[in-house]
Design a protein that fits this description.
The complex is a heterodimer of chains A (659) and B (411). Chain A is mostly helical and 659 residues long. Helix content of chain A is 61%, strand content 1%. In chain B, strand 3 and strand 4 form a beta hairpin. In chain B, helix 7 crosses helix 9. Chains A and B meet through helix 3, helix 8, helix 9, helix 10 and helix 11 of A and helix 1, helix 2, helix 3 and strand 9 of B.
Chain lengths: 659, 411
């Protein structure tokens, strides 16, 4: 306590607040503001969302470069761009990076930024925990990637890292150690964040925002958080066993000591299959916001959309062994998991038809966001149906571990997940930044990405059915693999071009923004609460916490249906929207301690691998930071007062940061 | 928007052309691993009962959804929406429709489930089939079974005629690293009789591998410490390619295998040849090669009649290396990746010498001194030693039939 608190400054009635320098500057409680240091101490869910998003895009580039290396190696037979060893590291890290360091944090960016906005809250339930999630995630991500430099290379066991190939005897570099510890650190981040967001969704909704009035994006993100909450402990157990096996000879997965290597597979896929839905459900949510907006119709069958999402969330737990149809589990196990896998296609198919029904009779506006959203539905449908083809377990014995599977899950994860999240970026960009992304460049981005994506992964269906195995660093001439591999490599370069176009769009849009009219609070004539407040969103989100009367509450503030069932405008956006000018809204106080806690964790990781004394230092740092955090008052008595006067705002609530 | 009028029409056109090309190349004769070209009754039944029906169902659903989507876009698209202030009818949902397509998908998936249950026995059920085999002048009724052992990065095939093993035995008492002595131990190429269902018992000595001959059946993993059943059957004599399909480390891509299916008569003569010990060579170069072999290679490899009596285990993580007794009777070497013979039937001396010179150059290995080796290390052989070894190895067993050598040439 002593290091963060000082004697309260006595203020006379007419005095303004003054701040005295403290001897130890690092312990000065941060006050918030605009400089880079304030990003380190921020607890604002929007800034944290932006941090997640920006870091995710950075790792998208890292994982993308790894993907390009893979495709260059496989462009022609007997490729020699990478050695077998490096190839194995690159394809492993490509998978790990794209799953844990790109898609998940990008979805977390949407969750952090938009859940509070969509439910009418001023922040998440635990703002400092939210900061902790991000910093732990970042420290885990950096830790994982430093294995290239200090670990003797990346992990070389595949993202699935099957025992016994993950053992020290078969993977002697430290890559797998970094994998095991790095993913545990990332798991802490996701776990903390999932609890935070669940509590936010359940407890912080604005008055009248019942669960069945929540926007579908928030619903899908909520389901995702439950999946994370239950899935991460399983993989954490598995990783913990792996870590002890490798570092301390624990023998959990050593068959010579009587272990069964299939244990790892079960643990991994009990996490790994819900993980697929963790990746795809946020994109489903994004699409469910965009298609209604640009069809100018409400989402068709809201209840069915919500409950099919919940059904997917439940059934996602009962399908994991379809990754193991050929592992030698018994025929009844195979049949059972084959059946459960098939029936998860039912709620998924219902979703697809509901999106189509939303477009039915609509007046479709093909903005870039809408194009991405519709492409998401189309590409996901292909991925889903190729999934159905190998849910038939006997057929899967021909297809598993071939490029057919690579094609399948890239159609799901890239076609469904990534295209969906790009749709979200184009849709919400004006809300976050106060200017549009350029639509013309966006169209280039969309078409190049769509063509590149199909050219990359479409041919992989053919390659897989032609018998090309996965995870091979090279293939021989004469098996008929040459042409389509070259096509896939060309496609992957197109995807790279489209990502460059996106980045150029980000830069150019910002540069052009001052010369263009601002988007205003609601540029797309959209439906949910985040469009009722200015763009960019003011720090306090809502001037007054909205009173919600129904689904699509914001849309109903603008429009009503008359007796003939036609839509009539009842208020303009300017009339209905909040101005963002409220002052004196109570906001959570920033803190450096989440960052400090997070810095300790990789030190523990390096320590476990290289020197236990370092682990001790890391542990001390983490524990000391946790204590300092606990001692730090939730509300900073010295905080700037223009945002710290509850009485000043009529009807405001102080939900921001209650202990 | 300055874009073509029908965006998804273009996309689906693109997909259709991809599909057309897929059909065209999928049937190409040079796709030796093609899963759509089954060559035996098991694979054929799997293909027609399991794979094709579900592909058709998926294709119909895909076309249905895609057509609906394209139609919706074409019909409802508003090209110039700037200033457009019209709102369509605000439909919120339609419960009978929702229930309808939920039931529709359910019925579709029930059909897929039927396909699965109908085709499951094709890969899982085994029949009892016995064939007469003569081994060491003794006739035995052999239930065709091969014990298949994965190793980094090659496959071992073990044939038990005299003391036949079955899955239950091995599951109860087996240990992949100390399997009971077999009548024939070979590697890289499995020889099977045509017209017989051959049961496979799969296991591994190090990491998980997966055995897959696409023309003869799907795949099954070889898991250390476990024995898993599988089966293959070839209708006609032929040469069938395979590739390890479970990621198994450094040289996973270079772990290949082939099945040679012979008529029962040819199979019998293969058994006759292959159960013999290696013959002591007469040629001086080969004799010198034997000496090199005995001095260096025996720390890992076995040749029956040379070191099988003293051999304990190989200096490898798996504890094993390919049995070379009848090396020359196989058409590939080094984990099924190189042709042992040229197209004209002569020994592929260039490749074999290159392999002996430095195996690590041709197939990634892990041979760090002081750690367990995985893969054949560089033996630092002189050119003379290599020549002698090649002379010796070329005489180990009979050259395979011309059609086999021809089928081996992939390019």
């Amino acid at each position: 306590m002593a290091i963060t608190e000082k004697t309260p400054l006595e203020l006379g009635p007419g005095d303004t607040a003054r701040y005295v320098e403290r001897p130890l500057g690092v312990f000065t409680r941060p006050q918030g503001g605009r400089g880079w240091r304030d990003w380190l101490s921020t607890v604002d869910h929007k800034r944290i969302g932006i941090l997640y998003g920006a870091s995710a895009m950075f790792f998208f580039v890292v994982g993308g470069v790894e993907a390009l290396l893979i495709r260059l190696q496989l462009a022609a037979p007997e490729g020699s761009v990478l050695s077998a060893d490096v190839y194995n590291q690159v394809y492993t890290m490509h998978g790990v990076t794209m799953v844990f360091l790109f898609i998940m944090p990008l979805a977390a960016a949407f969750a952090n930024y938009f859940i509070p906005l969509q439910i009418g809250a001023r922040d998440v339930a635990f703002p400092r925990l939210n900061a902790l999630s991000y910093w732990i995630w970042l420290s885990g991500a950096i830790f994982l990637n430093t294995s290239w430099i200090v670990g003797g290379g990346g992990a070389d066991c595949g993202w699935f890292c099957y025992a016994t190939n993950s053992g020290v005897a078969f993977s002697p570099s430290h890559g797998v150690d970094f994998y095991a510890i790095g993913l545990q650190i990332l798991g802490i981040a996701s776990l903390v964040s999932s609890i935070n967001l669940i509590v936010t969704c359940l407890n912080m909704r604005a008055p009248g925002m019942t669960l069945m009035r929540m926007p579908v994006l928030t619903w899908m993100l909520l389901i995702t958080q439950f999946l994370l909450l239950f899935a991460l402990p399983v993989i954490t157990v598995a990783l913990f066993l792996l870590m002890f096996d490798r570092l301390f000879d624990a023998q959990f997965f050593n068959p010579d000591a009587g272990a069964d290597p299939l244990l790892w597979q079960h643990l991994f896929w009990i996490f790994g299959h819900p993980e697929v839905y963790i990746i795809i459900l946020p994109a489903f949510g994004v699409v469910s916001e965009i298609i209604p907006t640009f069809s100018r119709k409400p989402l068709f069958g809201y209840e069915f959309m919500v409950f099919s999402g919940i059904a997917i969330g439940f059934m996602g737990w009962g399908v994991w062994a379809h990754h193991m149809f050929v592992s030698g589990i018994g025929p009844i196990s195979v049949a059972a998991f084959s059946l459960s896998t098939m029936f998860i296609a039912v709620p998924t198919g219902v979703k697809v038809l509901n999106w189509l029904a939303t477009m039915w009779g609509g007046r479709l506006r093909f903005t870039v966001a809408m194009k991405f959203a519709v492409a998401t539905v189309a590409m996901f449908t292909i991925g889903g149906l190729s999934g159905v083809t190998h849910s038939v377990a006997p057929a899967d014995t021909q297809q598993t571990d071939t490029y057919y599977i690579v094609a399948h899950f890239h159609y799901v994860i890239f076609g469904g997940g990534v295209l969906g999240l790009f749709a979200g970026l184009y849709f919400w960009w004006p809300k976050v930044w106060g200017h549009f992304l350029n639509e013309r460049l966006g169209n280039w981005n969309f078409w190049i990405m769509l063509v590149g994506f199909n050219l990359t992964f479409g041919p992989m269906h053919i390659l897989g059915l032609q018998g090309m195995s996965r995870r091979i660093d090279t293939y021989a001439r004469g098996y008929g693999f040459e042409f389509w591999n070259m096509a896939a490599t060309v496609g992957s370069l197109l995807i790279a071009v489209s990502v460059v176009v996106f980045m150029w769009n980000v830069v150019k849009s910002k540069r052009d923004a001052p010369h263009l009219p601002p988007p205003g609070p609601d540029p797309w004539d959209a439906r949910s609460l985040e469009w009722s407040i200015p763009s960019p969103v003011p720090e306090h989100n809502f001037d007054t916490v909205p009173q919600v009367h129904g689904r699509d509450d914001w849309w109903h503030n603008k429009y009503a249906e008359n007796d003939e069932g036609t839509v009539v405008r009842v208020a303009t956006v300017e009339e209905a929207a909040q101005t963002g000018e409220a002052t004196g809204v109570h906001l959570p106080s920033p803190s450096f301690w989440p960052l400090a806690v997070a810095v300790g964790l990789p030190l523990i990781g390096y320590g476990l691998i290289f020197n236990l004394w370092l682990a001790l230092i890391g542990a001390l740092l983490t524990i000391a930071s946790l204590y300092s955090w606990a001692m730090e008052p939730v509300d900073d008595p010295d905080a700037t007062h223009d945002h710290h006067d509850d009485e000043a705002t009529e009807g405001s609530s102080t939900e921001g940061d209650q202990p | 928007m300055r874009l073509p009028a029908r965006p998804l029409g273009r996309v689906s056109g693109w997909l259709l052309s991809l599909l057309g090309a897929a059909v065209a190349t999928g049937c190409a004769s040079d796709a030796e691993l093609d899963t759509f070209a089954p060559q035996g009754p098991i694979a054929r039944e799997l293909h027609s009962r399991g794979v094709l029906p579900v592909f058709w169902i998926a294709a119909v659903v895909l076309v249905g959804i895609t057509v609906a989507m394209v139609w919706l876009i074409w019909r409802n698209r508003v090209k110039n929406y700037e200033g457009d202030d019209e709102w369509p009818a605000q439909t919120h949902g339609h419960v009978p429709l929702e229930v309808g397509w939920t039931v529709g998908f359910f019925v579709t998936m029930a059909a897929v489930a039927g396909i699965m249950l109908w085709s499951l026995p094709t890969v899982d059920a085994t029949e009892t089939n016995l064939m007469g085999v003569t081994v060491d002048d003794r006739s035995v009724e052999w239930e065709p079974t091969v014990v298949v052992v994965g190793n980094q990065w090659w496959w071992e095939f073990r044939y038990y005629f005299s003391d036949q093993v079955d899955l239950a035995d091995l599951r109860a008492h087996g240990d992949a690293k100390t399997l009971p002595p077999a009548d024939i131990v070979t590697s890289g190429q499995m020889v099977i009789p045509t017209g017989e269902e051959v049961e496979l018992i799969l296991t591994s000595r190090d990491v998980i591998h997966s055995f897959w001959i696409p023309a003869l059946n799907g795949k099954r993993d070889a898991v250390p410490n476990r024995f898993s059943p599988w089966k293959i059957e070839a209708s006609d004599p032929g040469f069938y390619f395979g590739q390890c399909t479970e990621f198994c480390g450094l040289s996973h891509s270079r772990m290949r295998m082939q099945v040679v299916a012979l008529t029962p008569a040819d199979f019998q003569s293969w058994v006759d040849d292959t159960t013999q010990d290696a013959v002591e060579p007469a040629d001086p170069a080969a004799l010198a090669g034997l000496e090199v072999f005995s001095g260096i290679c025996t720390s890992c490899h076995v040749i029956e009649g040379v070191n099988d009596d003293v051999f304990e285990s190989a200096d490898q993580a798996s504890g094993a290396a390919p049995n070379l007794t009848h090396l020359a009777s196989r058409s590939t070497f080094a984990g099924g990746i190189f042709n042992l013979y040229n197209a004209d039937g002569s020994l592929n001396r260039v490749q074999l010498e290159a392999w002996l010179r430095n195996p690590g150059d041709l197939k990634a290995n892990y041979t760090v001194p002081g750690k367990q080796y995985r893969g054949m290390p560089d033996l630092d052989l002189s050119e003379q030693q290599i020549d002698d070894l090649v002379a010796y190895l070329a005489g180990l067993g009979n050259r395979p039939a011309d059609w086999i050598i021809e089928a081996t040439q992939v390019e």
